[in-house]
Amino acid sequence: MGKKKTPAINSSSTADIAFLLLCYFLMTTTMGSQTGLSRRLPPMPEKDQKVEDTKVNRRNIIIVKINSADRLMAGGEPIDVTFLKEKIKEFLSNPYDDPNLPEKEIKPIEGFGSCPVSKGVISLQNDRGTSYRAYIEVQNELVKAINELRDEFAMKNFGKKFLQLPEDKQDIVKKAVPQNISEAEPKDVGKK
């Protein structure tokens, strides 16, 4: 008796099925999207709007500079990025009403009442040669400082952290602890 041949499985359509499955999964899955820095820009001015020169008290501004060698200065003093968050928190909160730190203005907040709000503004300036890594590191520390101040305010007044609050209470916290970061156009310090 001769050897019996086993019938082969027809695999000609296997590649087609694999291709269709690949297409299906590519179209139905969501890929992680890249997100940028969350900043709210002011609205575009009207064409006939007059330009007003807004005067800001010098004590209400802290200038944070990053040079082309990624060295950091905050408030005119050299500082390591690891200490930036605490310096910004102290600047914005002005816990001891220091006359060299920002003023506080009593503002009525809808749904909460009157509250002292810092007039502090963080002015971020960097050089064209500043590395992207250093720029993002400084941005992260600035946002961390504001987020921690918001968490402290939320815990004190609502008993929960900022992100655990409902949207209406988050709006109250945002008004009580505003994120005022002003970014200047990068400059080329090496050239005049």
Structure report:
It is a single chain. This protein has helices spanning 14-28, 81-93, 132-158, 167-176; strands spanning 61-66, 72-74, 77-78, 104-109, 113-118, 121-126, 181-183. The chain has a domain at 60-183. A 5-stranded mixed sheet has the order 3-2-1-6-7, with helices on one face. Strands 4-5 form a two-stranded antiparallel sheet. By secondary structure, it is an alpha/beta fold. Helix 2 (81-93) crosses helix 3 and helix 3 packs across helix 4 (167-176).
End-to-end C-alpha gap? 98 Å
Round the mean pLDDT to the nearest integer and report it: 81
User: Helices and strands, in N-to-C order?
Assistant: HEEEHEEEHHE
What is the radius of gyration?
27 Å
Biggest beta-sheet profile? 5 strands, mixed
User: How much beta, percentage-wise?
Assistant: 15-25%
Query: Helix/strand-derived class?
Result: alpha/beta
Q: How many DSSP E strands?
A: 7
Q: Compute the number of helices.
A: 4
The amount of helix comes to 25-40%
Uncertain stretches of 5 or more adjacent residues:
none
Principal-axes shape call: elongated
Question: How do the strands of the widest beta sheet line up side by side?
Answer: 3-2-1-6-7
